[in-house]
Write a structure and sequence with these properties.
Length: about 270
């Protein structure tokens, strides 16, 4: 019996599989994968000799933990199709946005253990920030094992389910927003004469260093605004840029992004 089955090995499922193997947390031989379009798994198959099942039911029947890596709208039809293949009640791990545990339970045999996880795409480089919630059928041991899997590909936090939509915005979606910020700053650098690749590398390192500095200062109670103040010399260049950024609606845009993501999550939950 493989330890972890993955149905749907796309951007997120693939990032998790890649991260787990690369971190040494799970050897490829302990994973059994199935993706509807097999070509999408070729790089993982070639790189890690990832074991691949002929269909989703084979995965569901043969694993202790079953990770669903399909899009949210596919969760219910997939579980309904699996039917009896889920009779052994593997611990089901869902990473789907906007699909509460109760919705997933409704398509599973009664008392199936379900863990809801919201990772992010930086799992590819073992730098995910993953939120975790579980139903009452997940044993402490199983929860610890699932958490260890996601600890291996980044950091984890136990999150009450009613905070999941906001967590998903802050950690699941935000990488895309930060990538956009990096690209926008780099593009502005291009307008001032830098080559795009060089500008991107400069900005990405500045963002990585800034994030690391925030993380290292938080335990001392120094919040990001205190770091902002350290950079802004009186009548200097940074404060000029900061005020221009706020006049253009920067903080309001960040709040709007979080609010829109939470609203969309709630729409997905209701569908
Ligand atoms: N992309 C991201 O950054 C994040 C995604 N998620 C969640 O991860 C899940 C997957 O999203 P992505 O990886 O972005 O999508 P994706 O489209 O890249 O991957 C989905 C994969 O599932 C496969 N698939 C679809 N139906 C299938 C079926 N019936 N059986 C087997 N394979 C099937 C597709 O061929 C595809 O490779 C979603 O539920 C999403 O909410 C969560 C956090 C972050
Ligand atoms: O865009 C989405 O719906 C997924 C969930 C979090 C990141 N990507």
């Amino acid at each position: 019996m493989a330890k972890l089955g993955v149905i749907g090995v796309g951007a997120m499922g693939g990032a998790i599989v890649r991260g787990l193997i690369a971190s040494g947390q799970l050897p490829a031989a302990d994973i059994l994968a199935f993706n509807r379009t097999r070509e999408r798994m070729h790089s993982l198959e070639d790189e890690f000799s990832l074991p691949v099942a002929p269909d989703a039911a084979t995965v569901a029947k043969q694993v202790k933990y079953l990770l669903l890596g399909v899009k949210p709208y596919m969760i219910a039809p997939l579980l309904d199709d699996l039917g009896d293949a889920l009779a052994a009640k593997p611990v089901v791990i869902s990473v789907a946005a906007g699909k509460p545990i109760a919705t997933i339970e409704a398509h599973l045999p009664e008392q199936t253990p379900v863990v809801r996880v919201m990772p992010n795409v930086n799992a590819q480089i073992n730098q995910s920030m993953s939120g975790i919630a579980a139903n009452q059928y997940v044993s402490e041991e199983a929860l610890a094992e699932v958490r260890a899997m996601f600890d291996a590909i980044g950091k984890t936090a136990l999150v009450p389910e009613d905070h999941f939509a906001a967590f998903a915005a802050l950690a699941g979606c935000s990488p895309a927003w930060i990538y956009r910020l990096i690209d926008a700053l780099a593009q502005a650098g291009v307008a001032h004469g830098f080559k795009k690749e060089e500008a991107t590398r400069i900005v990405a390192q500045a963002v990585a260093g800034s994030a690391q500095n925030v993380l290292e200062n938080l335990p001392q109670g120094l919040n990001p605004q205190a770091l902002v103040d350290q950079v802004c010399s009186p009548a200097g260049t940074t404060v000029a840029g900061l005020l221009a950024m706020e006049d253009a609606g920067f903080s309001a845009a960040a709040r709007a992004a979080v609010n829109a993501a939470v609203a969309r999550d709630q729409e997905l939950s209701a569908s």
